[in-house]
Amino acid sequence: MPGPVDGRRLLLTGASGTLGRFLAPRLAGRYGSLRLTDIAAFPDPLPPGATFEPADLCDAGAIARLGEGMDAIVHFGGINTEKSLDAILPANIVGVTNVFEAARQGGARVVFASSNHTVGFYERGQRLTAADPGRPDGLYGLSKLYGEMLGRLYFDKHGVESIHLRIGSSLARPTEPRHLSTWLSNPDLERLVTCAVEAENPGVLMVWGVSANTRSWWHGDDAARIGYVPADNAETYADGIGVATDDAVSARYQGSAICAAGYTRR
């Protein structure tokens, strides 16, 4: 069985989550060394060449130590949906700050799993570029905007490179009408992350984490700068997707149900 094709050393946070578990064996098969971490135990057999160490993102010392000797930190850790401020603040604000500080100390690049919920309050059908102002649909999306701006600060002040991936709906296949615009296939997720890890001299870049969907709402990003060319299209599954049953608020905005959660505007 062939060994890794690339000698880079990677730290993957959020390794025990859905996307982390998908990425772990694929990154381990491609790179020379993979260190996995999460606050929860890794539920799968460890991929060959990978190690796992539990850590809380709020533990700055632990994250700095895990980042030592790494070429890139692929940061998929933290809260991945709308939660209370008490939940978001430690995981997504303190945690991402510790990740960028670990990257600064260790000389690593950060590949940051941002989110489409940074722009969730744009209306559906509106075509966005990565340069359009953020319109977060909740505290989760707001925390991801913080991470993006932190990346800009850490490059301008410290020279830390970062690629920010505004991930859409990362699933094995689309299951609802919204996904025809937002779907990111599993193979395209793998392509996206490896392109971000391997891009030359990126500085700070923003890439939509989306497949080549015919109905995509997003364009005008830095995908070409990192060589990311998605291969899949949600339209392949369009005939098997039923009619939307969203409430009026969810149906109006790109962020869907997170926009509607706690919505009181009249």
Describe the structure.
With 266 residues, this protein is an alpha/beta fold. The protein has one domain (6-260): NAD(P)-binding Rossmann-like Domain (Rossmann fold). The chain is 35% helix and 18% strand. The protein is built from nine helices and nine strands. The chain has helices at residues 18-30, 60-67, 85-106, 139-158, 179-182, 186-198, 223-226, 248-252, 257-260; strands at 6-13, 31-38, 50-54, 72-75, 109-115, 162-167, 169-170, 183-184, 204-209. The strands form two sheets. The protein has a seven-stranded parallel sheet, sandwiched between helices. It has a two-stranded parallel sheet with strand order 7-8. Helix 1 crosses helix 6, helix 2 (60-67) runs parallel beside helix 3 and helix 3 (85-106) packs parallel to helix 4. It is globular. It starts with 5 loop residues before the first strand and ends in a 6-residue tail after the last helix.
